[in-house]
Amino acid sequence: MRTYSIAAIPADGIGPEVISAGIEVLRALERQNSGLKFAVETFDWGSDYYKQHGVMMPEQGLQTLKKFDAIYFGAVGAPDVPDHITLWGLRLPICQGFDQYANVRPTKILPGITPPLRHCGPGDLDWVIVRENSEGEYSGNGGRTHKGLPEEVGTEVAIFTRVGVTRIMRYAFKLAQSRPRKLLTVVTKSNAQRHGMVMWDEIAAEVALEFPDVKWDKMLVDAMTHRMTLHPQSLDTIVATNLHADILSDLAGALAGSLGVAPTANIDPERRFPSMFEPIHGSAFDITGKGVANPVASFWTAVQMLQHLGEHDAAALVMEAIENVCAKGILTPDVGGTAKTADVTRAVVAFIESKV
Ligand code: NAI
Ligand code: MG
């Protein structure tokens, strides 16, 4: 019996709706394969916890999470709590505290989903975006002085370190090398940002020498939006800074049909700490409680979690189930269907169970 301990943090908005759907899928896997077990412990951290306790998670939160094999995360964000408090109170401390420096975001057009781009069907868009997840523009470095006075100053300092850039480039080149096209695009903005971004480019070129079989090119981030939209077939693996990849991956999700299908993995490649798996989307208060949240992103992120745990058969089975259910047209409204979260979940569970 292989047992994995999973810390579930559903948190806010539609987070609990899509994470409970994901746990149903893990339970289906247990029924399908009697050698597999997921010991899931659910934590009630998030904005409601904040309203009661004044913090998004207990002080010992990271200590508690450390012993788990993986973290399965929903989303944070509430209409009545400032976003920088919710994000910096829960998700970012986990990413930074556990040095999950590689944020991996696969995107492809699933069968049955009509993407917004004409002439772009399944197979034409198959990307993995690697987002630097520990420093850059979201390092948290900066401050405010003279608050409220006319001379008030706010700084938000982007930090790029040689160690940080080298390790994310190495991760991205290695990932590109493992994919059939062996193609990497390094996103930059070294025309306008002449310090950290120039170093970023130089380190990319240095690391490239270690991977002579990977074909790579460099794109300015603004031009990248153009290329993603007009020439999606020309891209495969993409590496970008924390901010750039944050923005580009929402675009990628939209080009694949919806943010509701876009998954992400926050990985500590050295496996010193648990890695964290979450949908890209936020808490989506506009649809919370309506039962229509698309659970596909949370299922796909479970696929990433299973891959990270080394359960490749189970991962492939969940991916096959997602593709099968989408192809049948069992889709939530964000991707043009009329199904509820529960309908999609039931269909994915039934597919997995049919493979016993
Ligand atoms: P959002 O991702 O929550 O929603 C953007 C749009 O996509 C909305 O129209 C929403 O209905 C739709 N959408 C998102 N996920 C969906 C799903 N699974 N199924 C169907 N439709 C879906 O982004 P927004 O509105 O900018 O942020 C809402 C809150 O979430 C904010 O408080 C923000 O700070 C937080 N947030 C948290 C993230 C996280 O926890 N990782 C990431 C992004 C935003
Ligand atoms: Mg984002």
Q: In short, what is this structure?
A:
With 356 residues, the chain is an alpha/beta fold. It has helices spanning 15-32, 47-53, 61-65, 83-97, 162-178, 196-208, 221-230, 242-255, 296-308, 312-327, 341-353; strands spanning 2-11, 36-42, 70-75, 102-108, 126-132, 136-145, 153-159, 183-188, 215-220, 237-240, 263-267, 275-279.
For the record, give the distance between the C-alpha atoms at the N and C termini, rounded to a whole number: 17 Å
**In CATH terms, what is the fold-level topology of the largest domain?**
Isopropylmalate Dehydrogenase
User: How many domains in all?
Assistant: 2
Radius of gyration: 20 Å
What is the CATH class name of the largest domain? Alpha Beta
Helix content: 25-40%
Question: Please, how many helices?
Answer: 11
Low-confidence stretches: none
The helix-and-strand class reads alpha/beta
Q: Describe the global form.
A: globular
Give me the CATH architecture of the largest domain, please.
Answer: 3-Layer(aba) Sandwich
Main pleated sheet: 10 strands, mixed
The assembly state of the depicted protein chains is single chain
Mean pLDDT across residues: 96
Ligand kinds: 1,4-dihydronicotinamide adenine dinucleotide, magnesium ion
* H and E string: EHEHHEHEEEEHEHEHEHEEHHH
Q: Order of strands across the widest beta sheet? A: 2-1-3-12-11-4-5-10-8-9
